Amino acid sequence: MSFINILLQGKIEMLAFVDPSPFNIISKKLFNKIKTNHSIGPVTNDIRKLYKDAIGEINGLEIQFLINKKYVNFEEMKELNFIICEKPLCDLILGQVWLENYVKEIPQLIKDMSQESSDPYLTDSEEEENLCRKCGLDHVISEKVQNSEHVITLLKNITKDT
């Protein structure tokens, strides 16, 4: 699993799950928590086929990324579009849309993501479990999730092509 520290709408610090799923996703619970004035757009049939619990689409959520212990805006990444789902795996998921469209900023984020653990005695598995708990994903800990290396590989391959 791969997570990135973000600041959502300038008020909520959290971990975003980086996943090779097709779209960016936000949970209904988190969407309600940010109390934004954005209107919710309808869900297309194609999206409903992929996400049966999708209830709407939201355009232009502001996200800042934690780089070197400071939240920064990448102008091209400032406002992102999301599918709102009832119960996604994580409250905020950055998918392929994010990965493919913001390729030039990704090397900086990879560097920040791959920094050593704050506790050098934790194994990768223990670090992953701590991140799952911090993100409210206790139910995922017992499951074998094999996409973390895939995400990092995908990020590195995308940046090689540019």
Q: Any overview of this molecule?
A:
With 162 residues, the chain is α+β, with helices and mostly antiparallel strands. The protein has one domain (2-160): Cathepsin D, subunit A, domain 1 (Beta Barrel), CATH 2.40.70. It is 34% helix and 27% strand. It contains 7 helices and 7 strands; from the N terminus they run βββααββββααααα. It has helices spanning 28-34, 45-50, 96-101, 106-113, 124-134, 138-141, 148-160, and strands at 2-8, 12-18, 25-27, 54-67, 70-72, 79-85, 92-94. The protein has a 6-stranded mixed beta barrel, surrounded by 4 helices. A hairpin with a 3-residue loop joins β1 (2-8) and β2. It is globular, with a radius of gyration of 15 Å. The two termini are 25 Å apart. The relative contact order is 0.21. Residues 119-123 and 139-147 have low confidence and may be disordered.
Summarize the structure.
With 162 residues, the chain is of the alpha+beta class.
Question: Which terms summarize this structure?
Answer:
single chain, 162 residues, alpha+beta, Cathepsin D, subunit A, domain 1, six-stranded mixed barrel, 7 helices, 7 strands
- Determine and state the CATH class: Mainly Beta
Mass-distribution shape? globular
Q: Please tell me the overall pLDDT.
A: 73
Sheet of most strands: 6 strands, mixed, barrel
**How large is the count of helical segments?**
7
Strand order of the largest sheet: 1-2-7-3-6-4
Work out the strand percent.
Answer: 25-35%
What's the number of structural domains? 1
Q: Could you give me the name of the CATH homologous superfamily? A: Acid Proteases
Poorly predicted ranges (pLDDT <50, ≥5 residues)?
119-123, 139-147
Terminal residue distance: 25 Å
- In quaternary terms, these chains amount to single chain
Q: What's the CATH architecture? A: Beta Barrel
What structural category arises from helix and sheet content?
alpha+beta
